[in-house]
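Curious: explain these C-alpha cells?
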Amino acid sequence: MEKKNYYITTAIAYTSGKPHIGNTYEIVLADSIARYKRFQGYNVRFQTGTDEHGQKIELKAEAAGVTPKQYVDNVAGEIKRIWDLMNTSYDKFIRTTDEYHEKQVQKIFKKLYDKGDIYKGHYEGMYCTPCESFWTESQLVDGKCPDCGRECKPAKEEAYFFKMSKYADRLIDYINTHPEFIQPVSRKNEMMNNFLLPGLQDLCVSRIGKDIIRFHTIYWPIFLMALDLPLPKQVFGHPWLLQGDGKMSKSKGNVIYADDLVDLFGVDAVRFFVLHEMPFENDGVITWELLVERMNSELANTLGNLVNRTISMSNKYFGGVVNNTGVAEEVDEELKKFVLGTMAKVDAKMEELRVADAMTEIFNLFKRCNKYIDETMPWALAKDEAKKERLETVLYNLVESILIGAELLESFMPETAERIRKQLNAQPRGKESLNTFGLYPSGNKVTEAPEILFARLDVKEVMEKVEEIRAKQKEMAEAEAAADGSSADNAKAADGANDSSASKEAGVDVEKAPEITIDDFFKTQLRIGQIIKCENVEKSKKLLCSQVRMGSEVRQIVSGLRPYYTAEEMVGKKVVVVANLKPAKLAGVLSEGMLLCAEDAEGKPVLLTAEKDVPNGVSIG
C-alpha cells in the first residue's frame, strides 16, 4: 500500500542568539510528532530552520563588529548544533538567507504585487523597537507593548502593504468550517476574537514581527490563499516553557540551555522532560530541581529500575535465557490486555498532538509492569522448584511487555528505546506487530551485564554543578558587556578596585583641570535616574534619546552613545544624570540633562552607575 504523505515544520528560529531550552522545546516536540508519523507508516517531510532578517540582528551584528551575514552564519550554526545534539530527525534545515529561498520570496512578492495584493504606502502606528512590531492604540496594554511591556513610540515610514482585508472573510469562513485548523481551541479563539473579527488591517510586508501564532494562523494562510495554494491542515500553537525562578537573564546566570541540561542529565532525559511536562494548552514550568525529581521518579524508578530488575532476575534465575513455558494465570491476561491496549491510546493522543498525554500512556504501561512484578513476586516463585516454569513465564511476559513499551517510546526517547532493545537482545518490530503479544523468541538470551538506563541523582550535587554553570554565564555576560562597552549592568568596577590584579594596572593620566571651590561643585546637581524608554534619533547615527525617570518626573536626555549601546540595552539602566544642565536641542531633539560616562582603555564611553541599587531621583554629593 502506498504511503501517505505528512509534512511538518517548526516556526523557524530567530538568529538573535543561542537558543535556550524554551526555544529547543519546539524542535523536540515537532521531532516526536514526525518520528511517530514515520512509525505509523507515513512518508514524512520534517523541516526546520532559521529566520535571519531583522533590525535586531543588524544591531547585534554591529555591536559584535561583524557583518549581519557573518553574525547569522555563526548563530545559525549554533542553532543547528543544538538541534542535532537533541537528536532531532529533520529532513531539511532552511535558512532565509539561502539564495534559492531569497529568489522564491522575490518571485512571490512580485506575483502578489503584479496581482494588486501588495501596494506601496506609509506605515504609521505605535512602534516597539525591541519587538520590531507596530501596534494600534487599541492593542497597547496600559499604553505599552502587549508583548514585552516596553514603551511604544509613534512612528511613520514608507512600506509595502498586503491587502489582508480582501481575504479576511474567506479565512474566517475556513476556520469556522475547519475547527481542527488552529489548535488548541484557546489559540483559535484568541486569533478570531483579537484580530479577525474586529477587522483585519492590511499587513506591512516589508517588516517582521514577534507574535508568531498570528503570522502562522492568519497572515501565512492568507498569503497562500492569494497564491492559490492549499492551506496547512493544522497549526498547533504550543504552550511556552517558563522558568520557575523568574525571567531568564544571562547577567543573572539563570538561562537554561539544552547543552547544559544534556551534560547533566543526558539527551533523552531532557527530551522526556520537555515533552512530558508540557500541558496541551497551558504553559509549563522548568527548574533544575524539578528535572532532578522527574529524573528520579519517572526515569530511574519507573523505567530504569524495571528494565534492570527484569534483566537481573533473568540472569540470576536462568542464566539470562528467557523462555515462554506457557504456564499462565489470570494476572497474565490482565497484563497482556493492558499492554496491547496501549498503542491505541497513544495513537489517539498523538492524533490530537497531545504528546505529553501520549507519553503518560506509555509510562502507564511500564508502571503496570512494575505492578505485575509485585503481583507475581518472582523472588518467591524462585524459592519453589515446582514453580520454575511459572517463573519463566513471568519473566518472559515482562520482557515482552517492556519491548512493546520501548517500541512506543522510540519516537520520544529514541536512544533509550534502542538501549532497551540492545540489552534484551531484540530487534525493532514495527507498528503492525504491536497488536500481538509473544513475538519475543523463546530461548533468547538477555545481556549478562545490564547497564543502568537512568541513575538516581542527588539534588544537592546537581545544584552545585548548576552554580558552576551560572557563574560561567555571568562571566560570559560581563565579558560581552565589556566588549560592547556597556558595563552598566554587568561589569563590577567597584570590585576591580579591590582586586590585586586591578591594583597593578597602570591606569590613565589626564590633564589637571583648574581648581574649583566646594561652592562651585555644588552648583552642579547630580542625581540617579532610571532609563524607562530609549530610541534612536532618526536624523543622527550617533544619538540616542532616553526618557529618564528621576523621582516623580521624567526627563528627555539625548546622548551620543548609539555607536556603543543599543536602545534596548539602555532601557532599565540606573545612570548618573547632570540634572540642572540648561536644556538644549541636539539634531532638533530637546535634551534636558546629561548622562555621565567614563572612558575605557580604548576610549569608548561607559555609563556610570551606582555601586548599589539606590532609588531613582536621589542626589549625589
The chain has a mean pLDDT of 88. The two ends are 84 Å apart (CA to CA).
